[in-house]
Amino acid sequence: MNRAERAWEVLGTVLDPEVPALSVCDLGIVRDVIDHGDELEVVLTPTYSGCPATELIEQNVLEAIAAEGLGPARATLRRAPAWTTDWISAEGKRKLNDYGIAPPGPVPPEGGVPIRIIGRRQDAIACPRCASLHTERLSAFGSTACKAMYRCLSCREPFEHFKPI
Amino acid sequence: MQASIQVSQAPAVQYLLRIGDTALILAQRLAEWSGHAPVLEEDIALSNMALDLVGQARAVLTHAGQLEGSGYDEDQLAFLRDERDYRNVTLVELPRGDFAVTVLRNAMVATFFKLLWTQLATSSDAELAGIAGKAVKEARYHQQHAADWLVRLADGTDESRRRVEKAVMQLWHYNTELFADDAVDEHAHATGLGPRWGDLKEAWTAEMTELFAAGGLTVPAEVAFLATGKRGTHSEHMGFLLAEMQHLQRAFPGGVW
C-alpha cells in the first residue's frame, strides 16, 4: 500500500467534530490525497461557507497523518465543485440514521427552483428511531448549519435532520 | 490603537468588497438577535444565517485581499478599514428594527444574493465562481426561510400585519441602491467577473412581487431615492456599527482567540 492509500485509511478514522458519527471520508469532504514526494497534500471541500469546524477538521486531518508517521502534509481547500450532501456515502447515511440524525435525501436539481410560498410540500422525513413517516418540522435551522429540527408524531421523539443541500 | 488601512480603488477589488461587505454587515446586524429573537428557533435561525454570511464574507474578503495585492487578509479588511472605505449597501447597515424589519430585509437581501451568486457561479474568476457555487445554496435557503416568515407575518394578526407594512415603508426604497450601476459594475460586466447588479433588477422585482402578493402586500411605487453605501457614503448608523464590530482589533491589534 502506498503512502496516499495509507493516508486514505487514516482519514477514514478522522471524525467530523460536529457529527462524530461520521468520518471525514463518510462526509465526502476529502476530495483527493496527492503524494508530492516531499509532502502529502490533502484536498478538502468545505461543507458550508461559515462552517466553524472547517479549520478544526484541517488540523485533525494533519495530526492524524502525522501520528501515523506518514511524513509532512498540508491541507488545501478546493471550493469547486461545491460540496453537496449527495457526497455523503451510503455507509455515512446509515451511520447518521443509527446516530439519531435523519440522513439527507437526494438534493433537488439546481437552478430555476422557484421559491415555494403556497402549498409547499416536502418529502416526509423518516424518524431515525421508529422509522415512522408521521413527522413534522419544528425549525428550519438546528444546532449546526447543516441540520434542521424535527419531531416524530408517532414515537414523540424530537430528532435532527441533515438538510439536503 | 491600530491604524486604519487604505485599499486599492481598482474596480475588481471594489466589486468584491461590495459583495463581501454587504454579507459581513448584514451578518453583524443578524448577530445582534442572538439571545433576543422572539422564539428560540428564530434565535438559532438568525445566528445560523449570520454564520453563513460571515463565511461568505470571509471567502470574498480573502480573495479581495489577494487581488488587491498589498497583502491584506480577511481580518485586516474587516477590522481595519474606516467607514468611508466600506462598500456595503446602506440597506444592511440600518438598525435591526423589530422582527418584521429583520424578516423583510432578509427577504430582500437573500433574494438579491441568490440571483447574484447564481450569476457569479460562472464568473471568469475561478475562485469567485467556487465561492458562489456554495453560497447560492445557502442564499436560497435563507430566502425560503425569510419568505415563509414574511407571508406568515403579513397574513397573521393585525399587529403583525401593521408591523410588516411599516417595515415595507421603512426599507423598500433602499432597494434602488442595489441596482444603481456605475463604473465598477461596467468593469465587472466587461471582464466577465460578474453581472452589473442593475441587470438583476427585473428578476429581483419579479420574485419580490410574487412574495408580496402571497402575503397580500402592495409593492410600493418606485420613487426617486438615493443611497450611496456601496460608494462609501453611509448612513448615520454605520459608524456605531463599526465601533462595536472593530473595537477589539483596534484596541488589541492582532488579538486572536
Automatic annotation (TrEMBL), chain A:
Pfam families the record matches: FeS_assembly_P, Zn_ribbon_PaaD
Domain (MIP18 family-like) ranges: 6-67
InterPro entries: Fe-S_Maturation_MIP18 (IPR052339), FSCA_dom_sf (IPR034904), MIP18-like (IPR002744), PaaD-like (IPR011883), Zn_ribbon_PaaD (IPR056572)
Cross-referenced PANTHER family: 1,2-PHENYLACETYL-COA EPOXIDASE, SUBUNIT D-RELATED, FE-S PROTEIN MATURATION AUXILIARY FACTOR YITW
Species annotation: Caenimonas sedimenti
Domain PaaD zinc beta ribbon: 120-163
Gene3D superfamilies named among the record's database cross-references: Fe-S cluster assembly (FSCA) (3.30.300.130)
This protein's name: Phenylacetate-CoA oxygenase subunit PaaJ
Superkingdom of origin organism: Bacteria
UniProtKB/TrEMBL annotation, chain B:
GO biological process annotation, one example: phenylacetate catabolic process
One CC-aspect GO term: cytosol
NCBIfam families with a match to the protein in the record: PA_CoA_Oxy3
Name of the featured protein: Phenylacetate-CoA oxygenase subunit PaaC
Source organism: Caenimonas sedimenti
Taxonomic path: Bacteria, Pseudomonadati, Pseudomonadota, Betaproteobacteria, Burkholderiales
Gene name tied to this protein: paaC
